[in-house]
Amino acid sequence: MAERAQPARQSVAVSTTGIRRSGPGRHLHRHDSDLTAAHAGDRAPADTTNGKHVSIETTLENAVHFLRGMAYGHRLHLLMLLRDGEQTPGALAEAIQLESTLVAHHLRSLRQAGLIRRQRRGRNVYYALASEATGRLVQEILRFAAHPD
Q: 78-91 pLDDT, tens per residue?
């Protein structure tokens, strides 16, 4: 039985000057704050960690993890509400008219996906978006959903 050749692994080298993909014949170029590839349809998300090499497989797995975390209407609604600032679970439950146990479940999933953070202050727990990038992602998803053409 003949051995199958393994495809060459690609990685993305990230620095403050831009992103470069190593691998067979593929190079990324920074253009207008967006990443475009020399090959059509080939895109890689930016990683702002200086000098960190991230494989394409890892980048795709991370993207799927984030997207699965927000892949429910209630979770997107919670993320949308958290764009305005931190809130308590009770305030979120009231805003989306959902039982507090279901809100807690969705908040836990969003937190496990790394999309939100939790902070305890005394007896109260507050949730907020994990970063400004999360807010921009939610905004772009909602904008795309409103005008998918």
A: 999 999 999 999 99
**pLDDT by residue (tens digit) across 7-32?**
444 434 333 333 333 333 333 332 33
Neighbours of 103 (CB within 10 A): 21
CATH topology of domain 70-146: Arc Repressor Mutant, subunit A (1.10.10)
What's the rounded Cα separation, in Å, for the pair 129 and 74? 15
pLDDT tens-digit readout, 66-114: 899 999 999 999 999 999 999 999 999 999 999 999 999 999 999 999 9
- Which residue ranges make up each domain of the chain? 11-56, 70-146
Gyration radius of the chain's alpha carbons: 19
- pTM of the complete model: 0.63
Residues in the chain: 149
Backbone region of residue 38 per phi and psi (left: phi > 0; alpha: psi in -120 to 50; beta: other values):
alpha
- Cα(first)–Cα(last) distance of the chain, in Å? 49
